[in-house]
Amino acid sequence: MVSRTRNNFILKACIFATGLAGIVAEYVMSTLASYLLGNAVVQWALTISLMLFAMGLGSRMSKNIQNHLLDRFILIELILSLLCAVSALSIYWLSIYIQSIDFLIYLLALAIGILIGMEIPLATRLNAYFEELRINISSVLEKDYYGALLGGLLFAFVALPYLGLTYTPFVLGSINLVVAAALFWQQRKNIKFKKLLSASFIILPILLIGLLILAEPIVQYSEQQKYRDTIIYSEQTPYQKIVITRWHDDFWLYLNGNLQFSTYDEARYHEPLVHPAFVLASTHRNILILGGGDGMATREILKYGDVERVDLVDIDPAVTRLGRDHAVFRKVNNDALNSPKVHIHNMDAAIFVRDSKMLYDIVLIDLPDPKTVSLSRLYSLQFYQQIKQIMSKGGVLVTQATSPFFSRKAYISILKTMRAAG
Fold it and tell me: Are residues 281 and 169 in the same domain?
């Protein structure tokens, strides 16, 4: 007979794993909502708040479970395994046919949250067979919170950058499946509904493997429906979703679903961004570009022979890698990012400006529109004042400032902020 100590260890290991899976599930749903619905701050706050509320509902509902605790805990893990695994796929697929996709995202977040909320109360009651109340509560919550810490780190540095929103949910589903399987195997003598659960352990892995095989085609098809032209490149980075589309001989770059440029007419944006500054500046030796990782602005800068150094600061190395290595970008930007004059810095623009010891003759800000908090601070009074400190005498600062026609308030706000900075 398996010892009480070993049973207790398995249960706590399962609690640790569910804590890890639970926090990653929250992050996956929040990231998915941000990507599909926009406004990252609102979507993260709303999605996580809904899931926490649902966890409260799940905790309350768990009090109605009076018997067969082990069987029901394992069943909850199996249902979570399936829901987590199919979360992204189902949302991607249904977003083609359902206009109000936000309702589906929030509904799925609530369902997953309720099941996660039922885990801790049931695990605590199961652990009551091994530890007294004082130790039981603290040890269960301790393992859950430790798992959440590891889950957050894995999501930020491993899952999202390397697995993306397509495969991370399958890892979540696998974790819950392993938790259920471990408990089922260790406690098989105490299981009441062995046939039902045994059948589930046969059917669910087969289903998950089948969905895993179909995952990439489903996501590619669903994503393609959101764009008019053919997708030739797609990548999820820790910072954004990068998509490149093609129509005949022209290409479009999208970041988080927002159009950045088209090779058809990008010169109409990049030429006015660069050349007036060179006319106004007294010298052109040292140039700073904040953003512009595609290399188009750098191409225009290198047309001036007296340029000695170009520092390009873009936080996302994936974008500058495309600008430097991708055949389409290299052709359009005239291989500008491979020039020995160009020095690429993959870091936060605010930190670079704050720590810079060099004086620049021209500073070009080619950043996305200030639609998020992290971007808005790069349009702030403090940021412009810091840039002023690293500009040479007679230097020129130019920024893109949204559209005076379609974003009039934002345009005027940026204009007033720059005037206030002097």
Answer: no
Tokens coding 256: 């988080």
DSSP H helices, 238-315, are 267-280, 296-301
pLDDT in tens, 23-59: 999 999 998 888 788 778 889 999 999 999 999 999 9
Reported residue count of the chain is 422
> Do 251 and 272 sit in the same domain of this protein?
no
Known active-site residue 144: no
Half-sphere CA count of 378, side-chain side, radius 13 A: 26
Would strands 241-247 and 391-399 be described as parallel, antiparallel, or unpaired? unpaired
Q: Provide the residue range defining the domain that includes 140.
A: 4-224
User: Rounded distance, CA 399 to CA 414, Å?
Assistant: 9
pLDDT at 409 over 80: no
**8-state DSSP, 189:** G
pLDDT exceeds 60 at position 2: no
Q: Of the residues 216, 244, 261, which one is the last residue of a structural domain?
A: 261
Query: What number of CA atoms fall less than 13 Å from residue 8's CA on the CB side?
Result: 13
Q: Which of 249, 316, 366, 369 is catalytic?
A: 366
Rounded CA separation 397/361 (Å): 9
Shared domain check, 247 and 363:
no
Sheet strands side by side (includes 360-366): 342-345, 309-313, 286-291, 360-366, 391-399
Task: Verify that 196 and 234 share a domain, yes or no.
Answer: no
SS3 label, residue 305: coil
Q: SS3 for 242?
A: strand
> Long-range pairs for 335-338 at CB < 8 Å and ≥24 separation?
336/295, 336/296, 336/298, 336/299, 336/301, 336/302, 337/295, 337/298, 337/312
From 208, 224, 240, the end of a domain falls on: 224
Same structural domain for residues 343 and 322? yes
Alpha helices, DSSP H, located in 96-193: 101-127, 133-154, 164-186
Contact 88, 173 (CB under 8 A): no
Helix (H) or strand (E) holding 325: helix 317-325
Residues 6+ away with beta carbon under 8 Å from 283 = 306, 361, 392, 394
Q: Are residues 383 and 293 in the same domain?
A: yes
Residue 285: exposed, middle, or buried by beta-carbon count in 10 A (0-12, 13-18, 19+)?
Answer: middle
Residue 216: count other Cβ atoms within 10 Å of its Cβ.
11
